[in-house]
Recover the amino acids of this structure.
């Protein structure tokens, strides 16, 4: 039997996905009642108002998805609180892991001097070049690519790359001597 809808019939074909009827009013009541307290708990646990609201919203989405089962609980708000505290704990763990990762890399990073004024002026001048010469100069000098590699990336002959580099050097020297 075909599972398409025929407007001439009085019955709908059986849906392969079960359709559940959710008592939205009960859920909305729970949402209105529990939301302020959940935000307060999340704020106390995270110290971040925006993150606490996001965590509560995620908790309420999970609540809605499980509402058929939860609406029969004596205290569905307690389930929400448990889900929220778990989410806050997970967020705290992620933040700790991120801090350790950043601190570990910060300690191993070598300090790099700030670029010189000449270098800043050079790259500002490069950014004023037309698009292809700008790309060629950037790939050749900053990207440390060969003429052949630049030609392959830009999809032009090697002679064009050499020509772009030569013309760009003339323009850049004239502009930087001002």
């Amino acid at each position: 039997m075909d599972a398409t809808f025929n407007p001439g019939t009085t019955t709908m074909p059986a849906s392969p996905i079960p359709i559940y009827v959710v008592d939205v009013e009960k859920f909305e009541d729970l949402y209105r009642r529990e939301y302020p307290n959940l935000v307060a708990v999340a704020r106390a646990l995270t110290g971040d108002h925006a993150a606490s609201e996001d965590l509560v919203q995620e908790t309420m989405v999970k609540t809605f998805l499980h509402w058929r089962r939860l609406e029969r609980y004596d205290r569905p708000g307690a389930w929400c609180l448990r889900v929220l505290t778990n989410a806050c704990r997970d967020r705290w763990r992620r933040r700790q892991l991120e801090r350790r990762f950043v601190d570990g890399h910060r300690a191993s990073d070598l300090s790099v001097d700030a670029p010189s004024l000449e270098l800043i002026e050079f790259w500002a001048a490069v950014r004023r070049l037309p698009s292809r010469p700008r790309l060629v100069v950037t790939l050749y000098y900053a990207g440390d690519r060969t003429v052949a590699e630049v030609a392959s990336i830009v999809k032009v002959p090697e002679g064009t790359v050499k020509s772009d580099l030569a013309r760009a050097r003339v323009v850049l020297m004239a502009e930087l001597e001002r």
In short: Residues 24-108 form a domain with the Rna Polymerase Sigma Factor; Chain: A fold (CATH 1.10.1740.10).
